[in-house]
Amino acid sequence: xxxxxxxxxxxxxxxxxxxxxxxxxxxxxxxxxxxxxxxxxxxxxxxxxxxxxxxxxxxxxxxxxxxxxxxxxxxxxxxxxxxxxxxxxxxxxxxxxxxxxxxxxxxxxxxxxxxxxxxxxxxxxxxxxxxxxxxxxxxxxxxxxxxxxxxxxxxxxxxxxxxxxxxxxxxxxxxxxxxxxxxxxxx
Amino acid sequence: xxxxxxxxxxxxxxxxxxxxxxxxxxxxxxxxxxxxxxxxxxxxxxxxxxxxxxxxxxxxxxxxxxxxxxxxxxxxxxxxxxxxxxxxxxxxxxxxxxxxxxxxxxxxxxxxxxxxxxxxxxxxxxxxxxxxxxxxxxxxxxxxxxxxxxxxxxxxxxxxxxxxxxxxxxxxxxxxxxxxxxxxxxxxxxxxxxxxxxxxxxxxxxxxxxxxxxxxxxx
Lengths: 187, 219
Known about the structure:
The structure holds 2 protein chains of 2 kinds.
Chain A: H1 2-21, E1 32-37, H2 41-46, E2 56-61, E3 80-81, E4 90-93, E5 97-99, E6 102-104, E7 107-115, E8 119-125, E9 141-165, E10 169-186
Antiparallel strand pairs in A: 1-2, 2-4, 3-7, 4-7, 5-6, 7-8, 8-9, 9-10
Chain B: H1 5-20, E1 63-68, H2 72-78, E2 87-92, H3 101-105, E3 120-124, E4 128-130, E5 133-135, E6 138-146, E7 150-156, E8 171-181, E9 188-198, E10 201-209, E11 211-218
Antiparallel strand pairs in B: 1-2, 2-3, 3-6, 4-5, 6-7, 7-8, 8-11, 9-10, 10-11
């Protein structure tokens, strides 16, 4: 009963706030997100439960499918994609690793992909703090490496990234729609 | 200098007009499922009619980033003579959802992560001065101890941490700044951090509900 009594007040407050918000900085349609390896490292850290040192994190925006065909549609085959939305996707390495057989020193990089039906080419590039892939400069590439596309039974609304541990290395998993691709990072 | 809501609206209007150019942005149109911003991440997908994302749930309090120069990545894309990068804040944006900022969401005198989820992070790309104290280039986290008329903004080195456990032993500086309440102005649904150019550098403007606070950064 008490809750019902306050409902009109809550609705009123919400609508007032919503109308005021239209003139103030908006929320991104494709929200930013972050993923760490070890997964959930920040939580583990404050609980003193981290058993492995920090290796990597990815900061990316998460576009939504919204009824569209993603691969071969919104994300055209054979073209460079920022692997997200808005600002270019960033990968930070907290230690030196191997990607595509190449030694990659610790630091921040921009991560792009060229998407095809059966494989993707991941690209690490030195130009950070940049927008999308509009000013991509191949001369600043650090490494390019191909990874096979795995079809899944998912129908993912939002682009998702996470890390998984494999034998002696880790994979950055990128998944959207019914596609999943792994970028191997050797420690 | 007293900041009025009118000034803030003007600034943010300019900001949003600029940022709308080719940028995928919109005001969240629907209220989303409420998640306590003080809980660890759960697999909650707030997209209507979507299945739960098995790889990474979508946060109720979405992350965002603010640069100084404002919109630096886009400036860089459009112009080869962009002024050098000074700062970037990465933070999550909790929303009021009908709650009052004080004391439903925040309590006076209790540390707040200045956002949600992970600790709010500031990256300084060059040395700066804040309230006469030198702060070296590098990455820090920020947290806040709000009081009715002032906020204490704390710069701390415990980076890549979740925002619920502050470690004061890792504080490097504390800055007291006025908290301006405007009960007659519009209420900001989403917590917002933006930079704003000043004569001596830039202010880091923090706004939520009817409260506004500015941390002056000189460089």
